[in-house]
Amino acid sequence: MAFPGRRAGLVSRRVASVLALAIAATLVAACGGAGTGTGDPAASGPVWVELVTQPPMGSRETAYDPPRPAPDIFLTDGDGRPFDLASLRGSPVLVYFGYTHCPDVCPTTLADIREGRKQSGIDAKVVFVTIDPERDDAAAMKQYTGYYGAGYIGLTGTPGQIAETAAAWGASYTKLPSDSANGYSMGHSADAYLVDPAGMLRHHIFFGAGSDLFAELITEVAGQ
What does each C-alpha distance from 153 to 109, 111, 126, 144 come to in angstroms? Predict the structure, then answer.
């Protein structure tokens, strides 16, 4: 398991610099870069997408215009209880698809979200949905999200439930064989989805956006 507090030595601004070195190169990796994804909950999936370098930080449009109702999420939380996304109405919510063995992209993004929440001063909730239910059971998700503190909710489910949920949100992923002692890895898209207190999907925020943008958009959708 990759421990979030260590973040594999990465911070978002450094990641952006590293990715810039690979301009014009198409990458296929396991959680080592940001998937292009579609950012569109109406997209069919999940399907694997090639990984490419992201545009410079802050230059990519994030807004859904117009906003749309956030897709349902009916999965299992870290205590083994049924979870319904609608239970978080009244608070901004960030939804992210990843997995606990991710070495870099997931812990970097979740840590940027944590810092953005602090900067905004708003108690936004964070829903972390595993795309690796084979290893990420309820206990693993509870332990992992616990490293980030209050407000983080880890969710798991059956492979079919995860596939259906990811498809509804436009998230993509695939299992990648590996000779590593840590076992297989997962390639996945890396957008974080921001839902406003009324349950409307407002933004899909790209990997490497940084905590400042998360803070700005959380404040925006909270109406403050």
Answer: 15, 14, 6, 10
